[in-house]
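Hello again,

I reread your note about wanting to compare the complex against the isolated chains. To keep things tidy I'm splitting this into two emails, and this first one only covers the full assembly. Below are the input lines as submitted, including protein chains and any nucleic acid or small-molecule components. They are followed by the predicted structure of everything together. The single-chain runs will come separately.
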Amino acid sequence: SQQGEEDPQALSIQEGENATMNCSYKTSINNLQWYRQNSGRGLVHLILIRSNEREKHSGRLRVTLDTSKKSSSLLITASRAADTASYFCAPMDTGRRALTFGSGTRLQVQP
Amino acid sequence: DAGVIQSPRHEVTEMGQEVTLRCKPISGHDYLFWYRQTMMRGLELLIYFNNNVPIDDSGMPEDRFSAKMPNASFSTLKIQPSEPRDSAVYFCASSFRTGERPQHFGDGTRLSIL
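Full-complex prediction:
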């Protein structure tokens, strides 16, 4: 099954700094989605990037996709303490109609 | 609009007991997913439904696990008999046209089997 692997596993930064998380996957995808999970809560969808797109923005979020390298990155600019959460990428492969998640990146933003 | 609603939020029970987890998806969504999250295995897809019909149950760990969706607004995940290794957070999610739309997650049921 398709699975995204996030890197790094954990990231600690100061408020105001940028945070970059990376995701690698294995096979052809239809799209790739990023989710956030706050402690004790369910996952929340952040952004979806299609296989024919290279970059997408949403507020302070910037996602890139390189299908030749089978990788994606999520950039959070001007981070805030409220951005503290785990972040997951979820590739959607061309055949399967379900997402699979990696282990996530745990982001800690220090105030 | 109400999001995905799961109940109970917490469940503590003894090994061997039957456990039933419940989920109400977002109205109008035609896909429903059950996931399990543990520290060791991360977030695993157990089963998903399309229009109340199970499509892929390859993630269901054992015959002790079963899931039903009797109508578009309700699904259950049942474990019988429960074992300590079933302790995890179980999430339900729903979406419209899976793969092309985001999934909306409930806040999960934290299950502890003693």
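For quick reference: Chain B has a mean pLDDT of 94.

B.
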